[in-house]
């Protein structure tokens, strides 16, 4: 009877030891998985932080909208140009934020960009608090990792001052600075057009 009880006891100890070893192996594997997950999460947070710094660090207006036209993201420059806080814009559409005319003008090229999948760059004028502003706009399709369209990416740079300076330079090139009347270059240009 003694050897039977001892044998049973030893089997129990061995069983507990094996179970403990198995648990230890599982725990080590689980710890490695958790460490890898934590490292991946840290890398993702760093990537998000870097992207946010780039988006917020530019004076250009940056926004992303989904296929229904709802803003998923807008930087502070874009929100400032709209005269609203970013959290007042995210989740809403142009139709909810602006007058029908402005919403239509802002969304004018969206359908073409989505249909063709091409990125387009063009000038766009829109009303702002201080009058009409001219923007150099680039719109492209926002895609997932498999290439499926998720929405639109829009980057716009305010070029109002540059356009105004270009117009002044064009005017000054053809007009006398003292009198404001057409100068010799303008006169010769008009004369050449009349001869044609």
Structure description:
The chain has helices at residues 2-57, 76-82, 86-89, 94-97, 100-107, 110-116, 160-174, 184-195; strands spanning 61-66, 71-74, 120-128, 131-143, 149-158. With 196 residues, the chain is of the alpha+beta class. The chain has a five-stranded antiparallel sheet with strand order 2-1-5-4-3, with helices on both faces. A hairpin with a 5-residue loop joins strand 4 and strand 5 (149-158). The model has no long low-confidence stretch (mean pLDDT 83).
> SS-based structural class?
alpha+beta
Shape: elongated
- Helix-strand topology string: HEEHHHHHEEEHH
Mean pLDDT: 83
Strands, total number: 5
β-sheet strand percentage: 15-25%
